[in-house]
Amino acid sequence: MGAARLLLDAERTTALRAFARAAGVSAHGLISAALLSVARARLGGDAPRVLGCLSPVDLRSRLVPPVPPTEMVAAVATHLHALPVAANPEPVALAGEITEHLRAAIARGEHFHDMRITPEVPRNPALQMATVIATNMGAVSGPRLPAGLELTDVRLVPGREHYFPQAGRSPLMACVVTFDGRLAVELPHHTACFSAEFMRAFRDDLRSALPSLSAPHELPA
């Protein structure tokens, strides 16, 4: 196992979330669009390529009784979205497509179908084969600390040691969390699938893509 990581400061994180709101897309959609764009750039060619984005669906508010968002429990389903991605995609349009599709799929209850096949995925990874897996724990506030103690960072620990290396090349896993106002993206990977050099380069391209999305520029009409 290996892990590459990027961390935005609070100012960049605030700008990114504000840009997503102004564009009418979710922060998850914007981050997923950046991940797909970076992945597409590595495939070559000029024609669009169909890529898969696996997104989490938070079930806490959908349980009976509902679980409050402050409770960190593993109540999550997934949804796989396959979509054509151009060689040089327009990031806001791509983020909008991801956002609208995921919201509509949740409204239709499609994540329940994904839950039914989940037990079969370890035996047949092709059932849920994505190009990128974009988890998102949302915004998490830091705990109250004693005077003089400062919490500077939080890291996510992968819950398993491999990501389908038996499929040849595992999906790119991006574990996203905003802790105390700073967006972090962990990129855990199996070294049989991706080299450390590849993941560092992917991380660096993602680092460039995310701040550029929050930079001031005209939104599409």
TrEMBL record:
Gene Ontology MF: a single term: acyltransferase activity
Keyword Ion transport assigned: no
One Pfam family per UniProt: PapA_C
Domain Phthiocerol/phthiodiolone dimycocerosyl transferase C-terminal: 3-187
Keyword Transferase: yes
Domain of life of the organism encoding this protein: Bacteria
Gene3D superfamilies: Nonribosomal peptide synthetase, condensation domain (3.30.559.30)
Signal peptide: none
InterPro entries the UniProt entry points to: PapA_C
Key words, A-Z: Acyltransferase, Transferase
Name of protein: Phthiocerol/phthiodiolone dimycocerosyl transferase C-terminal domain-containing protein
Organism lineage: Bacteria, Bacillati, Actinomycetota, Actinomycetes, Pseudonocardiales
